[in-house]
Design brief:
Layout: E1 4-17, E2 20-33, E3 37-41, H1 48-56, E4 64-73, E5 76-77, H2 83-93, E6 94-97, H3 101-104, H4 111-123, H5 127-140, H6 146-149, H7 159-171, E7 177-181, H8 189-206, E8 209-214, H9 217-223, E9 226-231, E10 234-240, H10 241-246, H11 251-258, H12 322-326, E11 332-333, E12 347-348, H13 353-364
Parallel strand pairs: 3-8, 3-9, 6-7, 7-8
Antiparallel strand pairs: 1-2, 1-4, 4-5, 9-10, 10-12, 11-12
Helix pairs in contact: 4-5, 7-8
The structure holds adenosine-5'-triphosphate (ATP), iron/sulfur cluster (SF4) and magnesium ion.
């Protein structure tokens, strides 16, 4: 069995705002094993980034505050260990990649110098050795003419090349775990695919764990092993990717999957084949996510200042019953008790997960 790298347990984060306390993360649990990719999926505002920030220790605090839970890294809780040890782990063993490389990189320092600085500060290398390592790394992430370009500033690179440089920064100290928060969202489609491929390749080569925050279901199908679907600061469903795509055990997941046009855009995008929401095929031919008519989930996600009672999804859920308004569903074990998605287990925070699966199976029979 692969080593458990990250084990987030019942993590809670709130923000004190002028309008009251916003419960941004309301008890999130997920795990990542060495060499595995966990995709975290969910609509805007569902708490994906805040969870990542709390794990990495870069939460905007105040107004943010971790109010509960554990963040176990190789079995040790980052939230309770001494500051010095925590800094060491977060500095070298964990790294983060952001959506916007231009604001994550230092605008007034050439990129080669920024990379070299990592080696000088953390590895105690001489300036010359560090510069050489920096160029090797730029070469590794396939920056053309790396030696010449090391003297250029971030704004002199294209968006895709800048993202590669940020990946190089994250990789420099060969971390065990990388958290990538929408790393390709700002790029155009072909460049997205190249950057994602690079990230997947490095993950394999270094047997790192990767938490990939994304809203792109196509990307998830291609690169992730397991997936956690978030809504209103909670996990709605977690499963091995294939199981979740074929047989979602939560109405919210099903809504997300149904909002992607049924079009094969060549990336091995595994779509389930149930046909009860007919007429959603993309009309634009090679339209990808944009050209199609979508089955969108009705309504909008709730404000973290005023979460619905019971199941937070109930105002939008086509399956909602009275009990959903009253009782908050726990994360039910859909498979064997205690199994995590990495070992084939699945969980669903829906009172009616079984009916959801039965209905799908009936349609597909
Ligand atoms: N600094 C902050 N102050 C107050 N509220 C915040 C702050 N940062 C985040 N929040 C709130 O926390 C909730 C979760 O935000 P988060 O950024 O984690 O969402 P997300 O899932 O990453 O969304 P997106 O897909 O748009 O990136 C949101 O309601 C957001 O408004
Ligand atoms: S618990 Fe009820 S409201 Fe929530 S997802 Fe399940 S059926 Fe829908
Ligand atoms: Mg975010």
């Amino acid at each position: 069995m692969a080593a458990r790298l990250l084990d987030v347990r019942d993590l809670r984060v709130e923000f004190r705002t002028r309008d009251g306390i916003a419960e941004a993360v309301g008890g999130v649990s997920y795990t990542v094993d060495a060499g595995q990719t966990l995709a975290v999926l969910g609509e805007s505002g569902s708490g994906k980034s805040v969870t990542a920030q709390a794990i990495m220790g870069i939460l905007d605090s105040p107004p943010g505050r971790i109010t509960g839970g554990q963040v176990l890294f190789r079995g040790r809780d980052l939230l309770t260990m001494g500051a010095e040890e925590r800094r060491r782990i977060r500095g070298a063993a964990m790294a983060m990649i952001f959506q916007d490389a231009l604001s994550a990189l230092n605008p007034v320092l050439p990129v080669g110098a920024q990379l070299a600085e990592m080696y000088e500060v953390h590895r105690g290398m001489s300036r010359g050795d560090a510069r050489r390592r920096a160029v090797e790394l730029m070469d590794r992430v396939r920056i053309p003419a790396a030696a010449q370009r090391a003297g250029d500033y971030p704004h002199q690179f294209s968006g895709g090349m800048r993202q590669r440089i940020m990946i190089a920064m994250a990789m420099a100290l060969e971390p065990d775990l990388i958290i990538a928060d929408e790393p390709t969202t700002a790029l155009d489609v072909t460049v997205q695919a190249q950057v994602m491929e690079l990230l997947a390749e490095l993950r394999r080569e270094y047997a790192m764990g990767l938490v990939l925050i994304t809203h792109d279901l196509g990307v998830v199908a291609d690169v992730a092993d397991t997936i956690a679907v978030m809504y209103a600061g909670r996990i709605m469903e977690a499963a091995p990717v294939r199981d979740l795509y074929r047989r979602p055990a939560h109405p919210y997941t099903r809504g997300l999957l149904d909002s992607v046009p049924r079009v094969d855009h060549g990336g091995g995008h595994a779509r389930r084949g149930h046909g009860d929401h007919g007429g959603h095929e993309s009309r634009g031919g090679y339209g990808g996510h944009r050209g199609g008519k979508l089955y969108a989930i009705r309504g909008a996600p709730p404000s973290p200042l005023a979460l619905p009672s019971g199941c937070p999804f109930h105002p939008r859920c086509p399956r909602a019953q009275e009990v959903c308004r009253v009782e908050r569903p726990p994360l039910y074990e859909v498979t064997a008790a205690g199994a995590t998605p990495a070992s084939g287990g699945r969980t669903s925070a829906c009172h009616f997960w079984k009916d959801e699966l039965d209905a799908l199976d009936a349609v597909n029979a």
